[in-house]
Every structure is written in C-alpha cells, then in structure tokens.
Design goal:
By secondary structure, the chain is an all-alpha fold. The chain has one domain. The protein has 4 helices and no strands. It is globular, with a radius of gyration of 12 Å. It starts with 6 loop residues before the first helix and ends with a helix.
Length: 61
C-alpha cells in the first residue's frame, strides 16, 4: 500500500530538514519546550531559516 500525501503536507515535512541541529536533538531527546509539538511546527507557515530565529520562535531562548 502506497500512502499519498498532498503537496502541501510534503512541503511542510520538507521544512523540518531546515531546523537547527540543537532543536532536532532536543526533540529526539524529549527535552524540547513542553508546548513544542510536531503539530505546532507543521502549522507554522514560515519557519525561519535563521537558527537563532527558530530558537526564539520555538521557545528555546
């Protein structure tokens, strides 16, 4: 069975590859801010490419 995803969902997933390495590590380790969920990340329209801005946006500062 092959899953089909909408182009929008694939774009949202592709943006995850631009997350700062320390944010990814925190998510893997389970030490991210409590309110930082996968749903929240995917729903944010434009995740900044700047890692410092990402940390601020996602509550790491």
């Amino acid at each position: 069975m092959i899953a089909e995803y909408s182009p929008r969902h694939l774009q949202q997933l592709a943006r995850l590859s631009y997350l700062a390495p320390d944010i990814i590590s925190a998510i893997i380790d389970g030490t991210q801010p409590v309110d930082l969920t996968g749903r929240k990340i995917l729903r944010i329209g434009n995740v900044p490419l700047c890692w410092r801005a990402q940390r601020k946006l996602f509550g790491f500062n």
